[in-house]
């Protein structure tokens, strides 16, 4: 059985988070079960972009602080690293409050700029991952529970995509991002290359709606933990009320026979699951009805079958973040406004995910609107 702990933590007050995390890990053997004295321990938070902690975009600094202190008490040497979607690691760490915690605690920042090529073991043959992620003695994954417009939910497995260095993420979106199931398979195969030793989920304040960067904070008041990242994701999705058919990562894990995807093999401890479940957790409104169609029809009808990004002109500052982040270079700035090439657009929504002003919305395809109307 895969064990997943659930603990009620109602605020980010320092003592509350530290005590809650200690209670959370106790049934799993405590931090000492995962960290030995003298080991270099990489803590991998979500550092998507330079947003303040109240935006619920990134792992909260007090969750990182509690994890660092528990690692230190177990005798480990904590390093903190991630590769943000936009901006330098130091800039994002500073804005999110994570840098202050790192400096105050005596931990070190791990430089995620150097990629190391690793042979894949499945559909995808090569991955280039940050050296500290591969070389650390232990990896502790610190994801944020959020909705995700492409994967429906981002939590433990998806957070490991941050081990891909910088521009490498755009390459993966180009290679696999036009198909959600294929992209989920890539994420699972990446996870299998270096499984975290422990996953601790920040769900004190989660994100609902159009996450992972443009959604709304939602107080959930929980921390989750488990050794198996897939099992942690399954329980997190159950708490958020996300139907299995929308969990692309879980589906990919199940198809590959990966441990943790079978709910019957997962046991929860701590707060009873029925007390942890969140009513009315809003999911992304991105719609896509093209799955199951022949490829030639997908290509011809994609504009009508899928949602696509569009500009909210009054919010746009023409900063160019979306243009630079777009994997297929489908966004340009022409005559003082954004221009979209929807034939090139792969609907990965990286532009919405990374826009610092929330200036990108979604317009649904014509057939999607008709289907919803008759539903």
UniProtKB/TrEMBL annotation:
Statement: the UniProt record of this protein carries the keyword Iron: yes
InterPro entries cross-referenced by the UniProt entry: 4Fe4S_Fe-S-bd, 4Fe4S_Fe_S_CS, DUF362, PSI_iron-sulfur_center
Domain 4Fe-4S ferredoxin-type residue range list: 307-336, 337-365
Keywords: 4Fe-4S, Iron, Iron-sulfur, Metal-binding
Gene Ontology MF term list: 4 iron, 4 sulfur cluster binding; metal ion binding
A Pfam family of this chain: DUF362
Source organism, top-level taxon: Bacteria
Record's keyword annotation contains 4Fe-4S: yes
PANTHER family: 4FE-4S FERREDOXIN-TYPE DOMAIN-CONTAINING PROTEIN, PHOTOSYSTEM I IRON-SULFUR CENTER-RELATED
Protein's name in the database: DUF362 iron-sulfur cluster-binding domain protein
Organism field: Geotalea daltonii (strain DSM 22248 / JCM 15807 / FRC-32)
